[in-house]
Protein backbone atom coordinates (compact mmCIF):
# COMPACT_ATOMS: atom_id res chain seq x y z
CA UNK A 1 0.00 0.00 0.00
CA UNK A 2 1.39 3.39 -0.97
CA UNK A 3 1.99 6.16 1.58
CA UNK A 4 -0.92 8.21 0.16
CA UNK A 5 -3.24 5.21 0.30
CA UNK A 6 -2.31 4.49 3.93
CA UNK A 7 -2.91 8.12 4.86
CA UNK A 8 -6.27 8.12 3.10
CA UNK A 9 -7.28 4.87 4.80
CA UNK A 10 -6.27 6.26 8.20
CA UNK A 11 -8.32 9.42 7.60
CA UNK A 12 -11.32 7.35 6.57
CA UNK A 13 -11.12 5.16 9.69
CA UNK A 14 -10.66 8.14 11.99
CA UNK A 15 -13.50 9.96 10.25
CA UNK A 16 -15.85 7.01 10.67
CA UNK A 17 -14.92 6.67 14.33
CA UNK A 18 -15.59 10.35 14.90
CA UNK A 19 -18.92 10.08 13.07
CA UNK A 20 -19.81 7.09 15.21
CA UNK A 21 -19.13 9.05 18.40
CA UNK A 22 -21.27 11.92 17.11
CA UNK A 23 -24.13 9.54 16.36
CA UNK A 24 -23.83 7.97 19.80
CA UNK A 25 -24.04 11.41 21.32
CA UNK A 26 -27.04 12.47 19.25
CA UNK A 27 -29.04 9.26 19.17
CA UNK A 28 -27.83 7.28 22.16
CA UNK A 29 -27.50 9.73 25.04
CA UNK A 30 -29.48 12.78 26.05
CA UNK A 31 -27.47 15.97 26.61
CA UNK A 32 -26.68 16.76 30.23
CA UNK A 33 -28.99 19.27 31.89
CA UNK A 34 -28.88 20.92 35.30
CA UNK A 35 -30.44 18.71 37.97
CA UNK A 36 -33.84 19.97 39.12
CA UNK A 37 -35.74 18.88 42.20
CA UNK A 38 -38.93 17.04 41.28
CA UNK A 39 -41.53 14.97 43.11
CA UNK A 40 -41.24 11.28 42.14
CA UNK A 41 -44.43 9.99 40.52
CA UNK A 42 -43.86 6.26 40.75
CA UNK A 43 -44.23 3.39 38.32
CA UNK A 44 -47.80 3.81 37.08
CA UNK A 45 -48.68 5.65 33.89
CA UNK A 46 -52.34 5.96 34.86
CA UNK A 47 -51.87 9.65 35.65
CA UNK A 48 -49.89 10.47 32.49
CA UNK A 49 -51.06 13.66 30.78
CA UNK A 50 -52.15 11.65 27.74
CA UNK A 51 -54.42 9.44 29.85
CA UNK A 52 -55.91 12.47 31.59
CA UNK A 53 -56.70 14.08 28.22
CA UNK A 54 -58.11 10.81 26.85
CA UNK A 55 -60.39 10.31 29.85
CA UNK A 56 -61.73 13.83 29.36
CA UNK A 57 -62.51 13.17 25.68
CA UNK A 58 -64.19 9.83 26.47
CA UNK A 59 -66.29 11.44 29.20
CA UNK A 60 -67.38 14.16 26.78
CA UNK A 61 -68.38 11.56 24.16
CA UNK A 62 -70.35 9.65 26.78
CA UNK A 63 -72.11 12.77 28.09
CA UNK A 64 -73.00 13.79 24.54
CA UNK A 65 -74.13 10.26 23.67
CA UNK A 66 -71.69 10.15 20.76
CA UNK A 67 -70.06 6.84 19.85
CA UNK A 68 -66.26 6.88 19.82
CA UNK A 69 -65.45 7.45 16.12
CA UNK A 70 -61.87 6.18 16.29
CA UNK A 71 -60.26 2.78 15.70
CA UNK A 72 -63.30 1.43 13.87
CA UNK A 73 -62.28 -1.94 12.47
CA UNK A 74 -63.13 -2.68 8.84
CA UNK A 75 -63.13 -6.14 7.32
CA UNK A 76 -63.23 -5.60 3.56
CA UNK A 77 -62.48 -2.91 0.98
CA UNK A 78 -64.00 -2.36 -2.46
CA UNK A 79 -62.86 0.73 -4.31
CA UNK A 80 -64.31 3.74 -2.51
CA UNK A 81 -66.08 1.73 0.21
CA UNK A 82 -65.22 -0.08 3.44
CA UNK A 83 -67.19 -2.79 5.24
CA UNK A 84 -67.54 -1.57 8.84
CA UNK A 85 -69.81 -3.40 11.30
CA UNK A 86 -71.43 -5.28 8.40
CA UNK A 87 -72.32 -2.02 6.65
CA UNK A 88 -70.69 -0.80 3.43
CA UNK A 89 -69.71 2.84 3.93
CA UNK A 90 -68.40 5.47 1.54
CA UNK A 91 -64.84 5.89 2.73
CA UNK A 92 -63.11 9.26 3.08
CA UNK A 93 -60.63 8.27 5.79
CA UNK A 94 -57.92 6.48 3.80
CA UNK A 95 -55.01 7.97 1.87
CA UNK A 96 -55.61 5.37 -0.84
CA UNK A 97 -55.89 8.13 -3.44
CA UNK A 98 -55.37 6.01 -6.56
CA UNK A 99 -57.14 2.87 -5.28
CA UNK A 100 -53.86 0.95 -5.46
CA UNK A 101 -54.22 -0.73 -2.06
CA UNK A 102 -56.87 -3.14 -3.31
CA UNK A 103 -55.37 -3.63 -6.78
CA UNK A 104 -55.00 -7.29 -7.82
CA UNK A 105 -51.62 -6.75 -9.51
CA UNK A 106 -50.14 -5.24 -6.35
CA UNK A 107 -51.49 -8.15 -4.30
CA UNK A 108 -49.94 -10.66 -6.70
CA UNK A 109 -46.60 -8.86 -6.64
CA UNK A 110 -46.63 -8.91 -2.83
CA UNK A 111 -47.45 -12.64 -2.79
CA UNK A 112 -44.60 -13.43 -5.17
CA UNK A 113 -42.19 -11.44 -3.00
CA UNK A 114 -43.25 -13.43 0.07
CA UNK A 115 -42.78 -16.70 -1.83
CA UNK A 116 -39.26 -15.67 -2.85
CA UNK A 117 -37.98 -13.69 0.14
CA UNK A 118 -40.30 -14.55 3.03
CA UNK A 119 -42.23 -12.11 5.18
CA UNK A 120 -39.18 -10.21 6.48
CA UNK A 121 -35.51 -9.68 5.66
CA UNK A 122 -34.97 -10.17 9.41
CA UNK A 123 -32.04 -7.81 9.82
CA UNK A 124 -30.80 -4.29 9.35
CA UNK A 125 -30.10 -3.79 5.67
CA UNK A 126 -26.41 -3.06 6.12
CA UNK A 127 -25.89 -6.43 7.84
CA UNK A 128 -27.88 -9.05 5.92
CA UNK A 129 -31.15 -7.41 5.04
CA UNK A 130 -30.32 -6.46 1.45
CA UNK A 131 -32.24 -8.04 -1.44
CA UNK A 132 -32.30 -7.16 -5.17
CA UNK A 133 -35.93 -6.01 -4.89
CA UNK A 134 -34.90 -2.96 -2.82
CA UNK A 135 -32.34 -1.87 -5.39
CA UNK A 136 -34.92 -2.30 -8.15
CA UNK A 137 -37.46 -0.12 -6.32
CA UNK A 138 -34.86 2.57 -5.56
CA UNK A 139 -33.74 2.65 -9.20
CA UNK A 140 -37.39 3.10 -10.22
CA UNK A 141 -37.77 6.05 -7.83
CA UNK A 142 -34.55 7.67 -9.08
CA UNK A 143 -35.74 7.31 -12.65
CA UNK A 144 -39.20 8.65 -11.76
CA UNK A 145 -37.78 11.81 -10.17
CA UNK A 146 -34.78 12.19 -12.49
CA UNK A 147 -32.33 12.01 -9.57
CA UNK A 148 -29.07 10.12 -9.29
CA UNK A 149 -30.24 7.71 -6.61
CA UNK A 150 -32.95 6.94 -4.05
CA UNK A 151 -33.34 5.11 -0.74
CA UNK A 152 -36.39 3.47 0.89
CA UNK A 153 -37.25 3.53 4.60
CA UNK A 154 -39.55 1.33 6.66
CA UNK A 155 -42.04 4.17 7.36
CA UNK A 156 -42.87 7.61 6.01
CA UNK A 157 -42.74 9.22 9.45
CA UNK A 158 -39.33 7.66 10.13
CA UNK A 159 -38.06 8.86 6.75
CA UNK A 160 -38.40 12.50 7.81
CA UNK A 161 -37.28 11.97 11.40
CA UNK A 162 -34.22 9.96 10.45
CA UNK A 163 -33.12 12.04 7.46
CA UNK A 164 -33.43 15.44 9.13
CA UNK A 165 -32.18 14.18 12.49
CA UNK A 166 -29.07 12.70 10.90
CA UNK A 167 -28.14 15.33 8.31
CA UNK A 168 -28.36 18.41 10.55
CA UNK A 169 -26.92 19.34 13.93
CA UNK A 170 -26.51 22.00 16.59
CA UNK A 171 -24.64 24.44 14.35
CA UNK A 172 -27.33 24.34 11.67
CA UNK A 173 -30.59 26.16 10.99
CA UNK A 174 -33.86 24.47 10.05
CA UNK A 175 -36.53 26.79 8.65
CA UNK A 176 -39.94 25.37 7.85
CA UNK A 177 -43.42 26.28 6.71
CA UNK A 178 -45.72 26.85 9.68
CA UNK A 179 -48.01 24.01 8.53
CA UNK A 180 -45.30 21.40 8.01
CA UNK A 181 -45.99 17.79 9.07
CA UNK A 182 -45.19 16.64 12.60
CA UNK A 183 -42.61 14.14 11.30
CA UNK A 184 -40.44 17.00 10.03
CA UNK A 185 -40.77 18.83 13.35
CA UNK A 186 -39.74 15.64 15.14
CA UNK A 187 -36.71 15.32 12.88
CA UNK A 188 -35.70 18.91 13.59
CA UNK A 189 -35.98 18.30 17.34
CA UNK A 190 -33.79 15.22 17.02
CA UNK A 191 -31.22 17.19 15.03
CA UNK A 192 -30.90 19.75 17.83
CA UNK A 193 -30.66 22.54 15.26
CA UNK A 194 -32.09 25.99 15.72
CA UNK A 195 -35.63 25.88 14.33
CA UNK A 196 -37.66 28.76 12.91
CA UNK A 197 -40.96 28.77 11.02
CA UNK A 198 -42.41 31.18 8.49
CA UNK A 199 -46.04 31.98 7.64
CA UNK A 200 -47.64 29.34 5.45
CA UNK A 201 -46.50 29.55 1.80
CA UNK A 202 -45.07 33.04 2.40
CA UNK A 203 -41.81 33.27 0.43
CA UNK A 204 -41.34 36.92 1.45
CA UNK A 205 -41.52 36.01 5.15
CA UNK A 206 -38.94 33.27 4.54
CA UNK A 207 -36.64 35.77 2.83
CA UNK A 208 -36.80 38.13 5.81
CA UNK A 209 -35.97 35.32 8.24
CA UNK A 210 -33.00 34.13 6.21
CA UNK A 211 -31.61 37.67 5.83
CA UNK A 212 -31.40 37.88 9.62
CA UNK A 213 -30.41 34.36 10.62
CA UNK A 214 -28.78 32.47 7.73
CA UNK A 215 -25.20 33.67 8.22
CA UNK A 216 -25.18 32.61 11.88
CA UNK A 217 -25.28 28.92 11.01
CA UNK A 218 -23.30 26.42 8.99
CA UNK A 219 -25.97 24.53 7.09
CA UNK A 220 -29.52 25.66 6.51
CA UNK A 221 -32.42 23.65 5.14
CA UNK A 222 -35.91 24.85 4.20
CA UNK A 223 -38.67 22.27 4.77
CA UNK A 224 -41.85 22.46 2.67
CA UNK A 225 -44.57 20.20 1.27
CA UNK A 226 -46.06 19.68 -2.18
CA UNK A 227 -49.61 19.32 -0.82
CA UNK A 228 -50.40 20.14 2.81
CA UNK A 229 -52.40 17.33 4.37
CA UNK A 230 -54.58 19.30 6.81
CA UNK A 231 -55.74 22.05 4.43
CA UNK A 232 -55.35 20.41 1.02
CA UNK A 233 -53.57 23.36 -0.57
CA UNK A 234 -50.55 23.25 -2.86
CA UNK A 235 -47.17 24.47 -1.63
CA UNK A 236 -45.64 27.68 -2.99
CA UNK A 237 -42.67 25.57 -4.04
CA UNK A 238 -41.16 27.58 -6.89
CA UNK A 239 -40.99 30.89 -5.03
CA UNK A 240 -39.61 29.26 -1.88
CA UNK A 241 -36.90 27.46 -3.85
CA UNK A 242 -35.82 30.78 -5.38
CA UNK A 243 -35.51 32.37 -1.93
CA UNK A 244 -33.63 29.38 -0.53
CA UNK A 245 -31.17 29.46 -3.41
CA UNK A 246 -30.41 33.16 -2.84
CA UNK A 247 -29.42 32.36 0.74
CA UNK A 248 -27.49 29.16 -0.07
CA UNK A 249 -29.98 26.89 1.69
CA UNK A 250 -30.90 23.31 0.92
CA UNK A 251 -34.53 22.50 0.16
CA UNK A 252 -36.35 19.38 1.36
CA UNK A 253 -39.74 18.76 -0.25
CA UNK A 254 -42.22 16.35 1.32
CA UNK A 255 -44.36 14.86 -1.45
CA UNK A 256 -46.30 12.39 0.68
CA UNK A 257 -49.61 13.87 -0.50
CA UNK A 258 -48.53 15.27 -3.89
CA UNK A 259 -47.04 12.17 -5.53
CA UNK A 260 -49.80 10.68 -7.67
CA UNK A 261 -52.26 13.50 -6.97
CA UNK A 262 -50.98 16.64 -8.75
CA UNK A 263 -49.48 17.08 -12.18
CA UNK A 264 -51.17 15.84 -15.35
CA UNK A 265 -49.88 12.29 -14.87
CA UNK A 266 -49.34 12.41 -11.09
CA UNK A 267 -45.64 13.20 -11.06
CA UNK A 268 -46.10 15.70 -8.28
CA UNK A 269 -44.40 19.06 -7.98
CA UNK A 270 -42.02 18.51 -10.89
CA UNK A 271 -44.91 18.19 -13.30
CA UNK A 272 -47.45 20.51 -11.65
CA UNK A 273 -45.07 23.39 -10.91
CA UNK A 274 -42.32 22.92 -13.50
CA UNK A 275 -39.72 22.04 -10.86
CA UNK A 276 -36.47 20.49 -12.08
CA UNK A 277 -34.91 17.52 -10.26
CA UNK A 278 -31.90 19.58 -9.15
CA UNK A 279 -34.08 22.39 -7.78
CA UNK A 280 -34.78 20.26 -4.70
CA UNK A 281 -31.91 18.76 -2.73
CA UNK A 282 -33.95 16.19 -0.79
CA UNK A 283 -37.06 14.67 -2.37
CA UNK A 284 -39.14 12.84 0.22
CA UNK A 285 -42.34 10.87 -0.02
CA UNK A 286 -44.48 8.06 1.31
CA UNK A 287 -45.37 4.62 -0.05
CA UNK A 288 -48.67 4.48 1.85
CA UNK A 289 -50.65 7.18 0.06
CA UNK A 290 -50.86 6.88 -3.73
CA UNK A 291 -48.73 3.73 -3.92
CA UNK A 292 -50.86 1.41 -1.80
CA UNK A 293 -48.01 0.12 0.34
CA UNK A 294 -46.14 1.27 3.45
CA UNK A 295 -42.79 3.01 3.95
CA UNK A 296 -41.02 6.10 2.70
CA UNK A 297 -38.27 7.19 0.33
CA UNK A 298 -35.62 9.84 -0.20
CA UNK A 299 -34.40 10.73 -3.69
CA UNK A 300 -31.47 12.99 -4.49
CA UNK A 301 -27.79 13.05 -5.36
CA UNK A 302 -25.70 9.88 -5.25
CA UNK A 303 -23.54 11.20 -2.41
CA UNK A 304 -26.58 12.20 -0.33
CA UNK A 305 -28.16 8.76 -0.71
CA UNK A 306 -24.91 6.92 -0.05
CA UNK A 307 -24.45 8.93 3.13
CA UNK A 308 -27.97 8.10 4.33
CA UNK A 309 -27.64 4.47 3.26
CA UNK A 310 -24.67 3.90 5.55
CA UNK A 311 -25.33 6.20 8.48
CA UNK A 312 -28.98 7.30 8.81
CA UNK A 313 -30.74 5.49 11.67
CA UNK A 314 -33.82 3.78 10.32
CA UNK A 315 -32.48 3.39 6.78
CA UNK A 316 -29.83 0.67 7.03
CA UNK A 317 -28.92 1.06 10.71
CA UNK A 318 -30.69 -0.06 13.88
CA UNK A 319 -33.87 -1.51 12.32
CA UNK A 320 -34.99 -4.03 9.74
CA UNK A 321 -36.18 -2.40 6.55
CA UNK A 322 -39.39 -2.52 4.54
CA UNK A 323 -40.87 -6.05 4.25
CA UNK A 324 -40.36 -7.58 0.78
CA UNK A 325 -44.12 -7.69 0.15
CA UNK A 326 -44.43 -3.94 0.78
CA UNK A 327 -41.49 -3.13 -1.49
CA UNK A 328 -42.91 -5.30 -4.27
CA UNK A 329 -46.33 -3.68 -3.98
CA UNK A 330 -44.80 -0.18 -4.13
CA UNK A 331 -42.70 -1.11 -7.18
CA UNK A 332 -45.78 -2.43 -8.97
CA UNK A 333 -47.76 0.71 -8.06
CA UNK A 334 -45.04 3.09 -9.22
CA UNK A 335 -44.94 1.37 -12.60
CA UNK A 336 -48.74 1.47 -12.83
CA UNK A 337 -48.66 5.20 -12.06
CA UNK A 338 -46.64 5.68 -15.24
CA UNK A 339 -48.98 3.69 -17.46
CA UNK A 340 -52.49 3.84 -15.95
CA UNK A 341 -52.94 7.60 -16.23
CA UNK A 342 -56.74 7.24 -15.89
CA UNK A 343 -56.28 6.85 -12.14
CA UNK A 344 -54.84 10.36 -11.76
CA UNK A 345 -57.39 11.82 -14.20
CA UNK A 346 -60.33 10.37 -12.26
CA UNK A 347 -58.89 11.47 -8.92
CA UNK A 348 -58.37 15.05 -10.06
CA UNK A 349 -61.86 15.24 -11.56
CA UNK A 350 -63.39 13.90 -8.34
CA UNK A 351 -61.37 16.27 -6.17
CA UNK A 352 -62.28 19.31 -8.25
CA UNK A 353 -65.96 18.30 -8.30
CA UNK A 354 -66.13 17.74 -4.54
CA UNK A 355 -64.56 21.13 -3.78
CA UNK A 356 -66.77 22.96 -6.28
CA UNK A 357 -70.00 21.41 -4.98
CA UNK A 358 -68.99 21.96 -1.34
CA UNK A 359 -68.45 25.65 -1.99
CA UNK A 360 -71.73 25.94 -3.91
CA UNK A 361 -73.50 24.49 -0.85
CA UNK A 362 -71.90 27.13 1.37
CA UNK A 363 -69.53 24.79 3.19
CA UNK A 364 -66.23 26.18 4.45
CA UNK A 365 -63.35 24.41 2.66
CA UNK A 366 -60.65 26.77 3.90
CA UNK A 367 -57.69 27.18 1.57
CA UNK A 368 -58.05 23.83 -0.21
CA UNK A 369 -56.93 24.01 -3.85
CA UNK A 370 -59.02 21.07 -5.07
CA UNK A 371 -56.37 18.47 -4.32
CA UNK A 372 -57.25 15.01 -3.00
CA UNK A 373 -57.51 16.51 0.51
CA UNK A 374 -60.60 18.65 1.15
CA UNK A 375 -61.42 19.86 4.67
CA UNK A 376 -64.91 20.91 5.69
CA UNK A 377 -64.17 23.35 8.51
CA UNK A 378 -66.80 23.25 11.28
CA UNK A 379 -65.03 25.31 13.96
CA UNK A 380 -66.57 23.78 17.09
CA UNK A 381 -65.08 20.45 18.18
CA UNK A 382 -68.32 19.17 19.71
CA UNK A 383 -70.27 19.82 16.53
CA UNK A 384 -67.55 18.20 14.42
CA UNK A 385 -67.69 15.05 16.58
CA UNK A 386 -71.48 14.89 16.47
CA UNK A 387 -71.49 15.40 12.71
CA UNK A 388 -68.97 12.57 12.30
CA UNK A 389 -71.16 10.25 14.36
CA UNK A 390 -74.29 11.11 12.37
CA UNK A 391 -72.58 10.64 9.01
CA UNK A 392 -71.19 7.30 10.17
CA UNK A 393 -74.74 6.05 10.81
CA UNK A 394 -75.72 7.26 7.34
CA UNK A 395 -73.00 5.20 5.64
CA UNK A 396 -70.23 7.81 5.40
CA UNK A 397 -66.87 7.11 7.00
CA UNK A 398 -65.02 10.38 7.76
CA UNK A 399 -63.11 11.57 10.81
CA UNK A 400 -63.15 14.79 12.81
CA UNK A 401 -59.82 16.58 13.31
CA UNK A 402 -59.50 19.06 16.16
CA UNK A 403 -57.06 20.79 18.52
CA UNK A 404 -54.14 20.22 19.04
CA UNK A 405 -53.77 18.71 15.56
CA UNK A 406 -55.28 21.90 14.09
CA UNK A 407 -55.61 25.33 15.75
CA UNK A 408 -58.29 25.70 18.41
CA UNK A 409 -61.57 26.75 16.83
CA UNK A 410 -60.72 25.17 13.46
CA UNK A 411 -62.12 21.67 14.01
CA UNK A 412 -62.94 20.02 10.72
CA UNK A 413 -63.95 16.93 8.85
CA UNK A 414 -61.09 15.95 6.56
CA UNK A 415 -62.06 14.21 3.31
CA UNK A 416 -59.56 12.13 1.33
CA UNK A 417 -60.87 11.77 -2.21
CA UNK A 418 -60.35 8.51 -4.09
CA UNK A 419 -60.14 7.83 -7.82
CA UNK A 420 -62.96 5.29 -7.35
CA UNK A 421 -65.46 7.71 -5.82
CA UNK A 422 -68.49 8.41 -7.99
CA UNK A 423 -70.28 11.77 -8.41
CA UNK A 424 -73.33 10.14 -6.85
CA UNK A 425 -71.34 9.23 -3.71
CA UNK A 426 -69.83 12.70 -3.50
CA UNK A 427 -73.22 14.41 -3.89
CA UNK A 428 -74.84 12.13 -1.30
CA UNK A 429 -72.08 12.93 1.18
CA UNK A 430 -72.24 16.70 0.74
CA UNK A 431 -76.02 16.77 0.92
CA UNK A 432 -75.95 14.77 4.18
CA UNK A 433 -73.44 17.23 5.66
CA UNK A 434 -75.75 20.15 4.88
CA UNK A 435 -78.83 18.34 6.23
CA UNK A 436 -77.13 17.35 9.46
CA UNK A 437 -75.61 20.78 10.00
CA UNK A 438 -79.06 22.41 9.75
CA UNK A 439 -80.29 19.99 12.39
CA UNK A 440 -77.30 20.40 14.70
CA UNK A 441 -76.89 24.15 14.26
CA UNK A 442 -80.11 25.60 12.78
CA UNK A 443 -78.73 29.14 12.45
How would you characterize the overall build of this protein?
The model is unreliable at 1-14 (pLDDT under 50). Strand 1 (74-78) and strand 2 form a beta hairpin. Helix 5 (156-167) runs parallel beside helix 6. With 443 residues, the chain is α/β, with parallel strands linked by helices. The chain has 2 domains: 62-91 and 341-440, Aspartate Aminotransferase, domain 1 (Alpha-Beta Complex), CATH 3.90.1150.10; 104-339, Type I PLP-dependent aspartate aminotransferase-like (Major domain) (Aspartate Aminotransferase, domain 2). It has a 7-stranded mixed β-sheet with strand order 4-10-9-8-7-5-6, sandwiched between helices. The protein is 44% helix and 15% strand. It has 14 helices and 14 strands.
Describe this protein with a few key phrases:
443 residues, alpha/beta, Aspartate Aminotransferase, domain 1, Aspartate Aminotransferase, domain 2, seven-stranded mixed beta sheet, four-stranded mixed beta sheet, 14 strands, 15% strand, disordered N terminus
Amino acid sequence: MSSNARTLAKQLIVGKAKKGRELAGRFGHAPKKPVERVTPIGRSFDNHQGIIALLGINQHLEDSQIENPYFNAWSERKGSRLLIDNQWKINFSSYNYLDMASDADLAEAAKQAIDQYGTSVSAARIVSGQIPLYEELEAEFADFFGTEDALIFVSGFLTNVSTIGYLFGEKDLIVHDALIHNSMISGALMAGSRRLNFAHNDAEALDKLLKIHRNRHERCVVLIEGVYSMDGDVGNVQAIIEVANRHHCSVMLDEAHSLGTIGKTGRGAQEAMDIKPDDVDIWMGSLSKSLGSVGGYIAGSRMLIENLRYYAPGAALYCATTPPASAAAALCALRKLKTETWRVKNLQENSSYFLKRANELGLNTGISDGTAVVPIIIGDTNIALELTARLNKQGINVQAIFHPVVPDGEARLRFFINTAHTPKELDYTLNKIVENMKDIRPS
